[in-house]
């Protein structure tokens, strides 16, 4: 009999009581939801066990969570029921490359470590579909592992002495410095960057202590200007005096 983990590399990570990646949503996405919010349909691509899905659903978006891990999607269903936001969550077990994207209608797309889990040529195709799917006030949040990651077989990551993630073998496409930003500023992407960072992150959400090299992008449709103050907010308005 085949074990679930032989067909799903993330089965064991999502089967734990202490589910991998935890329940804290991606920080820049959380800041966007708190400051800007919105309503409508959002795709969470490679949603995993749903930490971003749940935050989006609780903010009022209707979320379609897509992943190839049925165990991850089962945990999303459980968590959304516990959190009372299940009416806003739909799960689809599919490869992101097989997903039909609507044109110009999505309020947002979240891709937290998805574009790096598929080969580079496929990631470019999915990226174009994502960009074309966004409506005029839509947002995109994307995170990818970069060549700074200690699990990468290229420098500088391969020369790092930082510890490697237990799930590093699932990353097949490490982004070069500036690559995600370059994709975002291409005119055909139709995006405006709100915030972009390349950084080292220490991860305590699963397995032994380890580090990542990451690029993190928050963007909106070009021409859209939401009330975004940055993450963390740089110059927030002072509270208004009580009348
Ligand atoms: C590092 S996890 C991130 C999960 C989630 N986005 C988060 O940040 O908590 C990567 C996820 O990508 C999923 N994945 C990998 N390749 C995929 C593909 N081709 N289509 C859909 N999901 C995929 C895996 O099953 C896994 O859940």
TrEMBL record:
All copies of the Methyltransferase domain together span 42-138
Q: What InterPro entries does the entry give?
A: Methyltransf_25, SAM-dependent_MTases_sf
- Entry's Gene Ontology molecular function annotations: transferase activity
Q: Which UniProt keywords apply?
A: Transferase
Q: Which PANTHER family match?
A: TRANS-ACONITATE 2-METHYLTRANSFERASE-RELATED (PTHR43861)
What is the name of the protein in this document? Answer: Methyltransferase domain-containing protein
Per the UniProt entry, what species is this protein from, by scientific name?
A: Crateriforma conspicua
